[in-house]
Amino acid sequence: MSTFKYIWSLLEPDEKYNPVKRRCQLLWDSFPIEKQRDIYNAIRQKKKERKFLDYNPLFAIEKNANPPKPKAQKLTFGQYYERFGTTEEQDGWKRVYLPEEQKTIYTKD
Hints:
The protein has helices spanning 4-11, 21-29, 33-48, 57-65, 77-84, and strands at residues 73-76, 94-98, 103-108.
């Protein structure tokens, strides 16, 4: 049984998008069930938070299938110490030494 009816129901597309419904289903069915769950949950969360979700259901599925990765955060040694009052790694921050520049920075993915 296809899970497509659940994503289509969640997207609630306008009737004018009915012509792309078959393409949406083919795209949806091309994903493994784990990826479908991730996409469904991402769309559900965006709707819950009232964030923008493409009106075209095909684009909504595509964009949430490959969301952009958030940029890694970076702090200089001084900025990190000023924020946390320590040089110890914490809260997901990692100390990175850059030998070419001979300096230490902190990054968080």
